[in-house]
Specification:
The protein is an all-beta fold. It has strands at residues 2-5, 8-11, 26-34, 37-43, 49-55, 64-65, 74-75, 80-86, 93-100.
């Protein structure tokens, strides 16, 4: 999970259990692309479909699916997955998580 506060990015650790085995998605980096977009990079598994969710409060939620530059999901073509997403300029406090999509 990554917490984004303009212009500082802080990284937090999150342990994930994947009952299907394989690689649990792990965010490796987040960079500010412009005033209203971020670029996410995460460790994935080739052939898996991933989506990104975001929230202001990781405890209370709600977590909502956010649109990526590739649509609502992205299929991993190798172990490093990258995609951009738009965020409203007023959203200076955001948490992100990567999910395997069905």
């Amino acid at each position: 999970m990554i917490h984004y506060t303009s212009p500082v990015v802080s990284y937090n650790s999150l342990w994930v259990f994947d009952p299907q085995g394989g690689v649990a998605p792990q965010i490796l980096g987040l960079t500010l692309g412009s005033t209203n977009s971020v670029r996410l990079a995460w460790q994935g598994e080739t052939g898996r479909l991933y989506g990104v969710e975001s929230t202001h409060d990781p405890v209370k939620g709600p977590w909502t699916r956010i649109a990526l530059s590739t649509g609502s999901t992205v299929t991993a073509t190798n172990a490093l997955v990258e995609s951009s997403c738009r965020i409203p300029p007023a959203d200076t406090n955001r948490f992100f998580r990567i999910l395997e999509a069905n």
